[in-house]
Amino acid sequence: MQPIRGRVRTGLPAVLLGAALLLTTACSGGGNSGGSGGDNGKAGGGTAKTGTEASKAVVNVKPDDGSKEVATSGVLKITSSGGKLTTVTVADTKGNAVEGKLAADGATWEPARNLAAATEYKVHAVAKDEAGRESAKDTTFSTLTPQNTFVGHYTPEDGSTVGVGMPVSINFTRGITNTEAVEKAITVTAEPSVPIEGHWFGNDRLDFRPEKYWAAGTKVTVKMALDGVEGRPGVYGKQTRTVTFTVGRSQVTTVDATSKKMEVVRDGQVLKTIPITAGAPSTTTYNGQMVISEKYKVTRMNGATVGFGGEYDISDVPHAMRLSTSGTFVHGNYWAPSSTFGSENVSHGCVGLEDERGAGDPNTPAAWFFNESLIGDVVVVKNSKDKQIAPDNGLNGWNMDWAEWIK
Fold first, then answer.
1. Are residues 185 and 229 located together in one domain of the fold?
2. 3 within domain boundaries
3. What is the CATH classification number for the domain harbouring 268?
4. Strand positions, DSSP E, 257-402
């Protein structure tokens, strides 16, 4: 009986083995029913690609993820090896995107401007290899918090309507040594478009203007992106501001110190001719193009503040409009006889018009001119026995040739 049990055990696995071989043949890949495809139908015996291989493109971000106190310029740079950058987004936590430039070969991305100070940024960058496979990197970093800062005090005011001679003038609270970076952070544009250039007066004042007076009706936009700009070693801007203003009608007034008259021209037409008194022989009026920068219905004028000692101190000068930082005004004069205007030059350098004390009479020449003038209107003085006013004495850069202005 023992041998019989042995035959039964060896025959049964053979049947199962045959079934297993049949099953293997039925499930083999390829359509070769003869079972001769030893490589599953693939020549050369290689390994098939599954389509899940990693991208060869690698994204690198500087500064490193989590970095603190990062410099606002010269550090942020995103690169790709083994592929090209296809998407780069850098934004602060409020969603304000950082404008940047992607190299033509797709290998690098750098910001177009400095970053803001004391700000956290998030970076999202994607690169693609030659096979079209993508890789991405997401990082965060924060910029330094400066100990010393500066801002720019600007004129004209946001939303104002000004005369055709009004420049954009920015006075900084700290002396600037990196003037190129600061000027790059400020853009001035106009509609209709016209070339606009900046000019530095010293290291704390930057003015912008076109070659000629603005055209009437021009819309001007000033964008100040000074936050994070290192204006001098260790001193950073902290200001981001957009200012717009409109240029009103064209009004240019010409004062002739010899004939003692001034002619007011609006939009190319003579509006009025007014008798005036200019600077006396010992205190002549500057020649040149001057811009009205301030208007006061009544103000005090004290000679001691402009180098004239105690020669005069008038507490209620009416209808005063500033033409220079050094104290030149067009203003009303109620203390001189009416016969003075148009016949004598008796002032300490200002241009005087007949007026009434208290600035209450709207019919006087001074009141009329005051009411018809805008900040930014141009007053040109000629034929005075004095020098031309300095371009930085007030908003008077028009006294500088364009070629010199753009140097």
1. yes
2. no
3. 2.40.440.10
4. 261-266, 269-275, 288-291, 294-302, 313-322, 329-333, 351-354, 378-382
Nearest to 205 by CA among 181, 172, 168, 167: 172
Catalytic site includes residue 350? yes
For the chain, report the end-to-end CA distance as a whole number of angstroms.
119
Tell me the Cα Rg of the chain: 39
Per-residue pLDDT of 298-345, as tens digits, reads: 999 987 777 776 677 899 999 999 999 999 999 999 999 999 999 999
Question: Which amino acid would we find at residue 167?
Answer: P
Helix H segments across 264-319? none
Where do runs of H (alpha helix) occur along 136-221?
Answer: 179-184
* Whether residue 122 is found in the same domain as residue 174: no
- Report yes or no: 329 and 323 within 8 Å, Cβ to Cβ: yes
Q: Final residue of a domain: which of 231, 247, 263?
A: 247
Residues 352 and 303 occupy one common structural domain: yes
Is residue 94 assigned to a domain?
yes
Distance of CA 358 to the CA centre of its chain: 43
DSSP per-residue letters across 98-160: PPEEE-TTSSEEEESSPPPSS-EEEEEEEEE-TTS-EEEEEEEEEE---SEEE-EEEES-TT-
Instruction: Identify whether 332 is part of a domain.
Output: yes
Catalytic residue among 199, 319, 348, 350: 350
Domain that holds residue 277: 251-396
Cβ atoms within 10 Å, residue 351: 29
Structure tokens at 95: 């969603």
> Do 268 and 187 belong together in one domain?
no
Whether omega before 281 lies within 30 degrees of 0, making that bond cis, reads no
Number of domains in the chain: 3
Question: Which candidate in 199, 319, 331, 348 is catalytic?
Answer: 331
Tell me, what CATH number does 131's domain have? 2.60.40.3780
Q: Judge if 108 and 209 occupy the same domain.
A: no
Inside any domain, residue 301: yes
145-199 per-position pLDDT tens digit: 999 999 999 999 999 999 999 999 999 999 999 999 999 999 999 999 999 999 9
Taking the C-alpha atoms of residue 284 and residue 347, their distance in angstroms, rounded to an integer, is: 8
